[in-house]
From TrEMBL:
It holds the Pfam family SNAP. It comes from Microtus ochrogaster. Belongs to the SNAP family. GO terms for molecular function: soluble NSF attachment protein activity; syntaxin binding. The keyword Transmembrane helix does not apply. This is Gamma-soluble NSF attachment protein. GO terms for biological process: intracellular protein transport; vesicle-mediated transport. PANTHER family: GAMMA-SOLUBLE NSF ATTACHMENT PROTEIN, SOLUBLE NSF ATTACHMENT PROTEIN SNAP.
Length: 137
């Protein structure tokens, strides 16, 4: 995989990492699967943010299934930030909402409030954007 990275064939490297991750899951090692998926997300984040979002969400799901909510919420946060950066606001709002719910579940209330305010800000921004579009059309 390092060979593919050096040759600037990141999509191929990510595909191999995803296959390896599936094999890890099938063989009962979800931690290794999650680490591989997260590494793939970091690898491709600057080249293909949409794929990175998908990988981070997959990783969060693996951690969530293993009841490792702190790790899951950390990766959801990465996905949310990439979604906002990519101006995919509706998806970002859903991701932030899920993030908030997990923080609430693990009783990390200060961070839960912070994420709640991010959600409110995003919702406000979406409203302004929709009003502007209606006004211009």
């Amino acid at each position: 995989m390092l060979f593919l990275k050096e040759m600037q064939k990141l999509p191929e490297a990510v595909q191999l990492i995803e296959k390896a991750s599936m094999m890890y899951l099938e063989n009962g090692t979800p931690d290794t699967a999650a680490m591989a998926l997260e590494r793939a997300g970091k690898l491709i984040e600057n080249v293909d943010p949409e794929k990175a979002v998908q990988l981070y969400q997959q990783t969060a799901n693996v951690f969530e299934n293993e009841e490792r909510l702190r790790q899951a919420v950390e990766l959801l946060g990465k996905a949310s930030r990439l979604l906002v950066r990519g101006r995919r606001f509706d998806e970002a709002a859903l991701s932030i909402q899920k993030e908030k719910n997990i923080y609430k579940e693990i009783e990390n209330y200060p961070t839960c409030y912070k994420v709640f305010f991010e959600y409110v800000w995003l919702d406000f921004t979406l409203d302004i954007l929709h009003i502007g579009i209606k006004y211009l059309s």
